[in-house]
Design goal:
Aminopeptidase; eight-stranded mixed beta sheet; two-stranded antiparallel ribbon; 49% helix; 14% strand; globular; binds zinc ion
């Protein structure tokens, strides 16, 4: 570990301000009316942020606008990295709001900013400040981005955002995830098609090892007709901060054990849940293993429709859906993952956390419906959806050859690290779980 590559605040804060401002502009262009407001909110956010940051940093916080405040806030928290978390949240929220096209701006900015402040007890107060949705954009400071992370062990814990993300990412190891995937494959022969005993056994297996390995997680079955999603929840510490949702489909077609499509993403979501269970977040986190994707996105359609019927709006409640479908095929060992969203925010966050994941490269793309469960969300009230995807689409998809032997576990591990770090950052990770 080398903390020397952390930039000083004086060096990175202006850069981040510029980055956020430019993102805000992009969001305005792609957002709907409310979004436009969001963009404006971004500016106003400074004011709101001031409130939040002030709460975190105290005297320092009030000196400058919300942006500078964010940085100050971190200091106040006692850890630069921590402040970074807050700032990051702000940036994320902002982008999220904008991208969502909803009045999201307020939520995104506010929620995120709040998260940032949340680090310190004072930070909570900052969250309150966030409530003033008008501002929308609390602070725009973001944590310093390491250029290289060659070590796999986290540094001595100082509780900062930087520290928590390094620690979270280090929980994923290729040699440890592979046996778990091979265990799933063993119970998926000849397939893991919806409605089969193999499918049901796989859901029970996931729920079982999660109960042992991550007992703090709330894991339930979401059942209807003959179908069953597995839903995993991590409660947020701020009930007004909305939720971030990630999912992958556990079912396969009849001809295959479906390990890349989509054992990689669905089991990955459960592995991510286990790793993330060790921390606390401002926003609620939901991780779903979907049924019936191969029959027409049935599980995600069912889930999204029920969520919308419950009154959960895309701007204030369901902040972002990240689909995880096919992440383990990388025959040339590129270590690359595609980050496919119409929204600017998740791409910005992916670029930010990339530095924590050794050997990872990112290719950005667009869209909110990629022939998978992100369509279940984007077509049913939540346009703020997208996915992570392997560098090359697996030619063995939907054939008996889609097995663990055809997968690149180091690359899959990077994809899971990226997904976890993105969710943790956007949801406002702020401390270790007790
Ligand atoms: Zn699939």
């Amino acid at each position: 570990m080398d903390l020397s590559n952390r930039l000083t605040r004086g060096a990175w804060a202006p850069m981040l301000v510029a980055l956020i401002l430019s993102c805000g502009t992009q969001d305005e262009g792609t957002s709907s009316g409310p979004t436009g407001t969001t963009g404006t909110g971004g500016a106003g956010g400074s004011t709101t942020g001031t409130g939040g940051a002030a709460g975190a940093s105290g005297a320092t916080g009030t000196t400058d606008g919300g942006r500078t405040d964010g940085a100050s806030g971190s200091s106040g928290a006692g850890g630069a990295g921590m402040g970074g978390a807050a700032g990051m949240g702000g940036g994320t929220g902002m982008g999220g709001g904008a991208g969502m096209g909803g009045g999201a701006g307020k939520d995104g900015g506010a929620g995120a900013g709040g998260g940032a402040g949340a680090d310190g007890s004072a930070g909570k107060a900052g969250g309150a400040g966030t409530v003033g949705d008008s501002g929308t954009m609390p602070d725009v400071s973001m944590p310093p981005r390491p250029d290289v992370v060659a070590d796999t062990l986290p540094p001595p814990g100082d509780g900062s955002y930087d520290d928590l993300i390094r620690e979270l990412v280090a929980r994923f190891k290729p040699a440890e995830i592979e046996p778990r995937y091979r265990a799933l494959e063993a119970m998926s022969l000849p397939n893991r098609k919806t409605g089969t005993a193999n499918y049901t056994a796989a859901t029970d297996w996931v729920k079982g090892w999660l109960a042992t390995e991550a007992p703090s997680l709330a894991v339930t079955y979401d059942e209807w007709s003959t179908y069953r999603n597995v839903e995993i929840k991590i409660a947020g510490t701020d009930p007004t901060a909305g939720m971030y949702v990630m999912g992958g489909h556990l079912d396969s077609v009849a001809a295959t054990p479906g390990m890349d499509d989509d054992g990689s993403g669905s089991l990955g979501v459960a592995i991510i849940a286990s790793a993330m269970s060790h921390y606390r977040y401002k926003s609620e986190i939901r991780l779903i293993l979907f049924d019936g994707e191969e029959s027409g996105f049935l599980g995600s359609i069912h889930y999204a429709q029920a969520l919308l019927a419950s009154g959960c709006q895309p701007d204030t409640c369901m902040k972002l859906f990240i689909n995880m479908d096919m992440l383990g095929y990388d025959p040339r060992d590129t270590g690359s993952i595609r980050v496919l969203f119409d929204l600017a925010a998740p791409k910005m966050v992916a670029q930010q956390v990339k530095g924590y994941i050794a050997g990872l490269t990112i290719t950005e793309g667009t869209g909110n419906c990629h022939s998978s469960d992100d369509c279940g969300f984007s077509r049913n009230g939540y346009p703020n959806a997208g996915e992570l995807f392997e560098p090359v689409s697996n030619p063995q998809r939907h054939t008996a050859a889609d097995t663990c032997d055809g997968m690149n576990f180091p690359t899959l591990n990077k994809a899971l690290q990226l997904g976890a770090a993105m969710m943790a950052t956007m949801a406002g990770i702020h401390s270790r779980a007790p």
